[in-house]
Amino acid sequence: MSRQLPFDHPFDDDKLKEECGVFGVIGVEDAANFVALGLHALQHRGQEAGGIVSHDPEEGFNSARRFGYVRDNFTKASLMKTLPGPLAIGHVRYSTAGSKGHTQIRDVQPFFGEFSMGGAAIAHNGNITNAEALRRELIDHGSIFQSSSDSECIIHLIARSYQRTIPERMKDALRRIEGAFSIVAMTRTKMIGVRDALGVRPLVLGKIGDGWALSSETCALDIIGAEFVREIEPGEMVVIESDGSLKSVHPFAPQKSRFCIFEHVYFSRPDSILGGQSVYETRRQIGVELAREAPVEADLVCPVPDSGTPAAIGYSHESGIPYGMGIIRNQYVGRTFIEPTEQIRNMGVRLKLNVNRALIKGKSVVLVDDSVVRGTTSRKIKEMILDAGAREVHFRIASPPTMWPCFYGVDTPKREKLLAATMNEDEMRAHLGVDSLRFITLDGLYRAAGHAKGRDKSCPQFCDACFSGEYPVAPSDMIDQGFKVEAAE
């Protein structure tokens, strides 16, 4: 049977995309049902496909992997009955850069493998930056790969380790890989969570009754009624046994944390907590900082829904300019709602966004958005606002210019496709055709994220490579292909 591919709408294409979300539960009856709920809450982190692996003491390991939304696949009682047991992990994903619409079911995680000491499954959020070199080495030594995913390298490295237990083998394997990763894995009796030494990608720990949960974000703990306990520390591995006991180890040399700052800007849900700070409050504070750095005389502050909303509220409050919903998002337009003919594609963002003409007409409008990537959506939104009778359009962007691609698990266009990589701010303003364009500074973004003195240039507190060009982990595979790593001027 042929599958319906996601409709890659132009509005979606002009956003950076987090590629994965992971979730796991141990110590509860029918754990897979809790995992399905958790994945539903993490759907914003990956909308192309999802998978669940469960283990039952009597029936062993079972798995299900499907294309499409969690709600369309893992709410069916007939399917969930095939995933019994008190232990389960799951994963949602986007396709990686360059493979959009060509993902095979074999690329959908979690991955499962049988080892001499029993089976294990693994789900991975992030990117292994030396995956191609590892894959060549493993194939040369006899490994047979079943997918195109870099995550499968971890399974093969575990298989080749001489350590006696799977957690010890996993430590062995992870010491060989470079990049950014948050991992949720499982054996017959254990659930394992790991973050890379820099803590680039998020992973949190929750308690549900006598059981435990691991999740990419706290919002997914909320949906299953789990209590947020703490974040998994950078470089930490937790091993949770079926009896509820938890062991924490640090298999990597300690390093300064470099958490992805774009999680604060866009990726994470606003109702999540990152580093002890509300994502919503951080985004609102970004708007406050932006109003201080880039004031303008205007009649109305409007968010570009939905990710620009908290920053627009902050900008309005600080500037004193009234806030209004000048753009309305159609919440019921799915990515597969209609056959994507050329005529429909040419409708552009109007399928998802519509201007509130009565509010906009005759006004000078400040539009607040989270980022500008290619700029195609920004131009179309500007045209819609002017068509509705706006007198002026001023863009205020709640992140610095995105000038560099990400190699740590975010689907980013090639550098030459990034508008800010080829134009300065004045050139971008002219290209977009707006009356003014200003981005928050990197220091302003750091202040909004809780660092009052801004960015420590000698040792940045976050991974901000997409803005600064300073990569905390060298993207080895890309360097081998000729990519030059050098800080932006």
Give an overview of the whole structure.
The chain is an alpha+beta fold. It has 2 domains: 10-257, 4-Layer Sandwich (Glutamine Phosphoribosylpyrophosphate, subunit 1, domain 1); 278-480, 3-Layer(aba) Sandwich (Rossmann fold). It is 28% helix and 25% strand. The protein has a 7-stranded antiparallel sheet with strand order 4-3-5-2-11-10-12. A hairpin with a 3-residue loop joins strand 3 and strand 4. 51% of the residues are buried. Residues 1-12, 96-101 and 335-340 have low confidence and may be disordered.
Task: Chart the SSEs and their pairings.
Elements: H1 10-13, E1 17-18, E2 20-26, H2 31-41, E3 49-56, E4 60-67, H3 70-73, H4 77-80, E5 87-93, E6 111-115, E7 118-128, H5 131-140, H6 152-160, H7 166-174, E8 179-186, E9 190-195, E10 204-208, E11 211-215, H8 218-223, E12 227-231, E13 237-241, E14 246-249, E15 259-260, H9 262-267, E16 273-274, E17 277-278, H10 279-293, E18 300-303, H11 309-319, E19 327-329, H12 342-345, E20 353-355, H13 357-360, E21 364-369, H14 376-387, E22 392-397, E23 410-411, H15 419-422, H16 425-432, E24 436-439, H17 442-448, E25 462-463, H18 465-468, H19 476-480
Parallel strand pairs: 15-25, 18-21, 21-22, 22-24
Antiparallel strand pairs: 1-23, 2-5, 2-11, 3-4, 3-5, 6-7, 7-8, 8-9, 9-13, 10-11, 10-12, 13-14, 16-17, 19-20
Helix pairs in contact: 6-7, 10-11, 10-17
